[in-house]
Amino acid sequence: MSENLVTIFFERQRGFEKKPALIWQGNPVCTFGELPAMVGRYRAALRQLGVKRGDRVMVKTENSPAFVFTYLAILASGAMFVPLNAAYTAAEVQALVEDAEPVLIIHAAATALPADDGSIARMTLEPDGGGALSSLAATLAPDFSVEEMAATDLAAILFTSGTTGRPKGAMLMHQNLSSNVAALYETWQFSDADSILHALPLFHAHGLFVALHLGLYSAATVTMLPKFDPAAVIALLPASTVFMGVPTFYSRLLAHDGFTTATVASIRLFVSGSAPLLPSVFASFEQRTGHRILERYGMTETVMITSNPYAPEGRIPGTVGYPLPGVSLRVIGGEALGILPAGEIGDIEMKGPNLCAGYWRRPEATAEAFRADGYFATGDTGVQDAGGRLTITGRSKDLIISGGFNIYPAELEILFAEIAGVADVAIMGVPHPDFGEAVVAVVIADSPDFDPATVTQVAQERLARFKQPKAVHVLAEFPRNAMGKVLKSELRQRFAASFSKA
Ligand code: AMP
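^ thats the input. predicted complex w/ adenosine monophosphate below
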């Protein structure tokens, strides 16, 4: 049997032909019965554009139903879906294009892209779902064929920034995505009675592989928003049963006066992930709504790894719960100590059907992250209790998570070190009440008249907004250890209170 995820979705949707699959701007866009034809038109368009099995198709646009049809059509073609963060600058995209070598770039007209040298086909797909690709699809008869795929064939490549500053493409197989959605469906007790309010970006694993996939797998209606907006979410929650978000979504909802018990009357499940949910936000949310947010843990390379239990009393703030069905976890104390017993903090490693095939064209990065026995080093540190419940204690990887998006300091350090007048630079994350963490740049300047605004300007020109420092400090020297390594922990402590609430 074909293991193409699209085949699996369409089979699961049988019997729900009359049910709306997607709602957009207040209107049903198509039913589950109409979905294969919608996807089929985009599949026909991709075929006409020459997309074949094994090709990469890059997509850089905002959420819309047409984005969903395009995604499913790429998978139906046997090609690989390569989504890009819509906020990436032309320079950031250029590096990824060279690495992924797509045959087609699907993009919003206004989005930042490298200059078009004509070597790679481009088609527009606008945030409202219009554009050249949708116009072409509308003229074509649906192509209902879905390429037969093996479980281990690749479905998508998602780029995550690396510790070296060079993004790495996680190669996700069809089985990674199908096994993970099945595990979440069971664990979170989904059914066709659900109605999902979707405000996460579709270019990220959380919005795509968790929120959207659960809708398609459960035959649950998905109400799609262009992006998170507290007022829009509050207006639509009464018609929904499930909402998923990054912690920032929850703190913003709590900051909104319109967010009341009445708003959440029909909700059965709030899920949080992609960054740590503060126990204080969990507590305020419970106090305001009576709901205990279910926190889960995952990453691009592994999709979802652990989840708090479905039973509300089992959801414990500050922990990320238990491994999902089929997933094995261990906590490692380095080569000398090996696997640690319950109660001891170490590096989190995992293995399971959700683990990606490695990094695209990066054998050395793959070898570094994958152990000989198949376990994957997550780069997160944590501790398991005697019953196996996991608490994340930090990150061994030098990663900042701001508003749910990842930023690797090395990428910014390399860029800012090139600025005239910058002798040295250190990038770190400090606590921020809204974003979780905020990027801070600390610069050692060549001369006393160095203007920190130059750093801000380069950041604005070259980096997606979420990566840009929220503060730039100039120091005479860095605190360093005996080996000369910059003591980021000291710098972080020094600037820790920069964004705390007054
Ligand atoms: P991404 O690949 O963008 O999904 O980011 C994955 C990283 O986000 C993980 O390796 C963790 O560092 C972090 N992360 C995801 N979920 C959680 C969570 N519930 N608590 C703490 N950190 C998390």
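The chain has 15 helices and 24 strands.
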